[in-house]
Amino acid sequence: MLKPGQRVPQDAIAQTLGVSRIPVREALIALEREGWTTIIPHRGAFVNALDEQSVRDHYELLGLFYGFGVRRAVERGGPSLAVSLEVIQKKIAKVKDPSRLYQLALEFHRTVIDAARSPRLRTVLRQMTDVVPGNFFELVPGSDAAVREGTAAIVTAIERNYPEIAEREYATMLHRQGDLVAELFRERGMFDEIPDQPGD
Asked: pTM for this one?
């Protein structure tokens, strides 16, 4: 496994996968756009640090974007949005299977963003890749409670036609998820000091 600050061995990856360097290079360019690697001309690609502040910033930004989305959705559609979200939220409250919970949480987010009717917001959110690969609710302890309580609070705010409170509750939910991810990564030793990159 590559560590933060380590040079990505493009030739070895290409050989292992049985492909040329071109698709490996294209993948690294995509990873750089998403913030996972840094490409230094004539030196190569290096794995970026995943420090605690970066993790927390990721979830704070998600909270801002989704908070903006839910505020726009309520302003443009009124509290009727709560009808659609309440159906999903009731399923979230009862479901036990982490895979199903993951799908329902995504459906909740999608419903909000669809109702916001903001193509620009949709484009921005597409650039935000997951910090936790795989099923979030299976891998992050306590995340199921965070999404159950958070979505319930969001729906309540929308029912009462309080877009600012819905915005705040979305930010609070994602901030709480960020805390849980940071705690998990810290326990697993993923925030160790990293070496300087060549040329620093």
From this structure: 0.78
Number of domains in the chain: 2
**Axis crossing angle, helix 21-33 with helix 10-17, rounded to the nearest 10:** 120
**How far apart (Å, rounded) are the C-alpha atoms in residues 17 and 12?**
9
pLDDT, tens digit, for every residue of 143-164? 999 999 999 999 999 999 999 9
Write out the H or E segment, with its range, that includes residue 44.
Answer: strand 44-47
Same domain, 111 and 14: no
Is 173 among the domain residues?
Answer: yes
Domain that holds residue 19: 10-47
Same domain, 116 and 29: no
* Predicted pLDDT of residue 1: 59
Q: What is the distance, to the nearest Å, from the Cα of residue 66 to the centroid of all Cα atoms in its chain?
A: 11
